Amino acid sequence: MAAERGARRLLGTSSFWLCCLLLLGRRAPGAAAARSGSPPQSPGASIRTFTPFYFLVEPVDTLSIRGSSVILNCSAYSEPSAKIEWKKDGTFLNLVSDDRRQLLPDGSLFISNVVHSKHNKPDEGYYQCVATVESLGTIVSRTAKLTVAGLPRFISQPEPSSVYAGNSAILNCEVNADLVPFVRWEQNGQPLLLDDRVIKLPSGTLVISNVTEGDGGLYRCIVESGGPPKYSDEAELKVLPDPEVTSNLVFLKQPSSLVRVIGQSAVLPCVASGLPVPAIRWMKNEEALDIESSERLVLLAGGSLEISDVTEDDAGTYFCIAGNQNETIEAQAELTVQAQPEFLKQPTNIYAHESMDIVFECEVTGKPTPTVKWVKNGDMVIPSDYFKIVKEHNLQVLGLVKSDEGFYQCIAENDVGNAQAGAQLIILEHAPATTGPLPSAPRDVVASLVSTRFIKLTWRTPASDPHGDNLTYSVFYTKEGIARERVENTSRPGEMQVTIQNLMPATVYIFRVMAQNKHGSGESSAPLRVETQPEVQLPGPAPNIRAYATSPTSITITWETPLSGNGEIQNYKLYYMEKGTEKEQDIDVSSHSYTVNGLKKYTEYSFRVVAYNKHGPGVSTQDVAVQTLSDVPSAAPQNLSLEVRNSKSIMIHWQPPPPATQNGQITGYKIRYRKASRKSDVTETLVTGTQLSQLIEGLDRGTEYNFRVAALTINGTGPATDWLSAETFESDLDETRVPEVPSSLHVRPLVTSIVVSWTPPENQNIVVRGYAIGYGIGSPHAQTIKVDYKQRYYTIENLDPSSHYVITLKAFNNVGEGIPLYESAVTRPHTVPDPTPMMPPVGVQASILSHDTIRITWADNSLPKHQKITDSRYYTVRWKTNIPANTKYKNANATTLSYLVTGLKPNTLYEFSVMVTKGRRSSTWSMTAHGTTFELVPTSPPKDVTVVSKEGKPRTIIVNWQPPSEANGKITGYIIYYSTDVNAEIHDWVIEPVVGNRLTHQIQELTLDTPYYFKIQARNSKGMGPMSEAVQFRTPKASGSAGKGSRLPDLGSDYKPPMSGSNSPHGSPTSVDSNMLLVIIVSVGVITIVVVVIIAIFCTRRTTSHQKKKRAACKSVNGSHKYKGNSKDVKPPDLWIHHERLELKPIDKSPDPNPIMTDTPIPRNSQDITPVDNSMDSNIHQRRNSYRGHESEDSMSTLAGRRGMRPKMMMPFDSQPPQPVISAHPIHSLDNPHHHFHSSSLASPARSHLHHPGSPWPVGTAMSLSDRANSTESVRNTPSTDTMPASSSQTCCTDHQDPEGATSSSYLASSQEEDSGQSLPTAHVRPSHPLKSFAVPAIPPPGPPTYDPALPSTPLLSQQALNHHIHSVKTASIGTLGRSRPPMPVVVPSAPEVQETTRMLEDSESSYEPDELTKEMAHLEGLMKDLNAITTA
């Protein structure tokens, strides 16, 4: 249709036809611009038109003889005239120097004095005419075969014979087929004249029908083929007088299977002899042929059938039946009709532009099915990446180039002949641009999606036309290093993306894009080089597969290792199937051969082999078929019957063994017979071929004989039938008339049957072959049954009750049926009532057992109460699902009151119903029961994963995807993995959880100009599915980053950068203001801590012993109340001792209720955290020096001695930040559909609380009794008392607060709704200055926990507290992205032991002596020096 529209537009708009042609090519990429016609001339342009160029006459197959002359005709039409050349057997003939072969003026080939001998056949072969017009092209004719008749050679010669007058006679003279037309006959040395009575068959055989005395004499055949005539031997035909006695019928010439071409004549020979003279009649496919009324069917002399002008309808099986009054014989033959190739659709002329794709259509028919090949300018077109045969016969040319111009011919060929049809291709130049501006090159051409076999390209509008609504685009692409370029066009104006399909894996392609407006095509974009992804290498087909039968029940198959495929072959799978069945079986094989045993005898099987490697199954081989060897039959012939002919002969009839038991081609039958009185004297006779009857003659009168028959194959004799007896007549009975009426007939009616009995006719001298019983309601002619002559009774079954039947009995023989004897009877009434229908099962229930199994149970009210099945009833269970809507029912039978339905789909609703069957009675279907299978983990990854950059935010990307095709349940979330190293272990990838069924997600603050790899994993209630393939995306280059003075993302007016060292999370430099702010905050924090420590020491020394005991008792009671006697974790860690564990955290006073993380989140799955047992404590103390600053080993050991055992955990950590500070925060596992965070998880300087000696409450916070109760409750809800120490803030301790108690609040976990097994503490690591960071812990704020909804960009931690600002925390990813990191112990502080706590309370006055205080002050002074050094630096 697109081509027709294009042609009409060309004819209607002559001045702009080239522009219209271009637009048409744009609308229909790959289609021809115009077909079959000449475009009109446009002003100022020379337009080429299609040139008529075709053959007027083509050569045909020719038969010649030696020494004669031959002309092979050929003539071509063209302007200017064409140059004619000839090819013989594919090679051009040099006719200039050939004295026997010359080219005639019209182009025909003349061959004089044809040469042909046994060893020299220079003229015989295949000839082809080639016509060429310079600057236009070349066409070739059909191929013609020249056959030269060989030297005369007799296959059979006439033999002497005798024939009775009036019968038929044949004289054989068979020669090689090409000499049959040159055969003639002589009688007594004189040429024999042929007529309607004397004919010559196509094989050369002479047939004489209705022989007379004048036909006797000497006969010979002569072959005259150009040389001296060749004579056969002479044979005498004797004509005998009619003996007036009968003789058996025999075939002198039987028909043989024949193959003919439509339009030819076919002769099926059939000549029979016998006395009386037989008559010949013909049948086709068991239907009699009406020869007299047909113009194409002729009965030749002797009875042969001639069919002229054969058509396809003449194909079939023909039966020649010869018969006289005594017997009938028949023979059959198959006529196969073939047809030469004919074109149903011929190729048409095509106009096209360069880079377009075109298709030449060619549709052919013929019998056998023709093969098609294509020729371009006389040369064979070899299929390649750019020349492809599509839709069986069509030729597709991809990415046209100028050299593709010319004439293309479709040549169809089969066993009968060949034919050709051609068309012309013209490549047009692009129309010159009209007056007006042309678009510039499209901008930013990128491959947004690269797969193994397709690439998606996107671009931006040209700079000359920023809107680009009316622009169309063409994408030109080619393989690297290939000059042939293809084009793909956008489907509508303004579209700026195209997906290029059908590419090759691991191949480099070059792309460029051009924009077109109404004035023409603009500039081309710069070439873009893209390589498709490699494909998983699966094994190719195993070469040289062979199969051969080794026995009647076994076949051996061999093959070789596949030539293509990546990876070692693990095993092979051999598939085989019996011919005619659809059930394929398979066997795992580890070697290159296998013998399949237990097959059926003489049965054809097909075999194929598939190789497997680590990626899975490869390409299957082609099927190879082989038949098991034959064997002796495994069953006896069927339906053996005996017919006594007279006092000395018995006719035996039988049928072949069942086909499945013949085990080969039946070559004959062995008949054994004996007298019943002498069982040891057995006589054998053989019957060859497919004959199914035999007359046994020469028997004794009035003697009983036993007969049995066995089938034969080339392997031997099969089992024989049981002995069957028959007795010859005492005397030869009369069979010249029909038998008399039977002497009596008796009937006995029953309900549905009548028993008939009779006695034979009184006249025993007439032969009785059997009896015919006729019966029917009111008439005896409804049905007839024939029984053996020995039988005296018969039961007529399947009658209607209470019905009046008329019955006849007639004796019959070969002459006919005798006089009938009539009787009538009325069948008895039916007294048994009709059975009542079965009751359907009740209480059908569906019990779901798994994701693919449901148990169906039911009850049967027709059974006794104990529900035990004692009869032969069975139940039918059917089930289906409504998705899709047209699903058919599946059924299964059961003999119990339950059935296990397996193989169901996960998370799918099924309906079930049950039916009971007993004998011929069945119930209706029961009421339906419904059941939904359990969910299963997704079995396929998310689809169509794409990554795009967010407009205006180069460090933010958006990941999009589609749900997995096999979700197997409701998707509850996704996990996005990303890394800069695609080969990194999966636990080293950064993860982003996505809650719910959202299909898009943002990831912020990525490093510019860095390639990232992304994978996505879906989950449902059963777990995680497989990961998608890695998708690569490279972030844009810096176009105004923070380091270059570009504006940072707006995080609120009160936003302060995190004090996380000198580097940003991804390595980009931070501003000078941030460094100064860090120094100021650290300085203020250190001074504040020094003051607090001095005041705390002073207050501690003034504490009385009574107050210590009261506080210790109060804490002891409180600890018992919380932890049920576990006093191990009562006292929180000392603020002064553990200050190096704490950290400064930034304050974000932004009012934004949904803070968005600006740094890459760290991995959040529990696999990244490996607990460390207590045995590693010594190693941990040694490693602490790596991030404790300038603390000495003495002070380290002193502090370590005052700490209790604390739980530890391992996590990957980058060793590059010199002094990391680690804090542990519990994060809900991903199993929870929502992330719950509490504001108590982090502390900040603005929210820290200092203890004053004179005040029981922290400075800056008015904490009521209810608030403290709330705090106590939060401690009860901590997931683990080992990892989450208790707060020391209790209501009974109101007088004084131990300074150590202020530390515990920073370690309080948020209240968890899940058990501790689902929530593990996750360490967040921030790069730190070598000096360390300090943070004063905060009291947990009051109020219930608050939940933040999931956001497109998921923050690592989100806190919200009552009457407090929302804090947004920047968290750096652990280590450098994509690098392997050694595990580092993370120590979560816990309270010291009870004994140590009591001792510290009682001896607090002596714990800080002046010398020790001096040491502590000296340590602080060292820290201040370090701080000054950093500040000056």
Regions with pLDDT < 50 over 5+ consecutive residues? 1-34, 40-45, 1040-1072, 1108-1408
Count of individual helical segments = 11
Oligomer type: single chain
Helix/strand-derived class? mainly beta
Distance between termini? 80 Å
SS strand fraction? 35-45%
- Total strands: 93
The largest β sheet comes out as: 6 strands, mixed
**Global shape:** flat
Calculate Rg over CA atoms: 52 Å
Give the strand order, joined by hyphens, for the main sheet.
1-33-41-40-36-37
Mean pLDDT over the residues: 74
Helicity level: under 10%
What does this structure look like?
The chain has 1433 residues and is mostly beta strands. Helix content is 10%, strand content 37%. The strands form 25 sheets. It has a six-stranded mixed β-sheet with strand order 1-33-41-40-36-37. Strands 13, 16, 17, 20, 21 and 22 form a six-stranded mixed β-sheet that branches. Strands 24, 27, 28, 31, 32 and 35 form a six-stranded mixed β-sheet that branches. A hairpin with a 6-residue loop joins strand 20 (217-223) and strand 21 (230-231). Helix 1 runs antiparallel to helix 2 and helix 4 runs antiparallel to helix 11. It starts with a helix and ends with a helix. Residues 1-34, 40-45, 1040-1072 and 1108-1408 have low confidence and may be disordered.
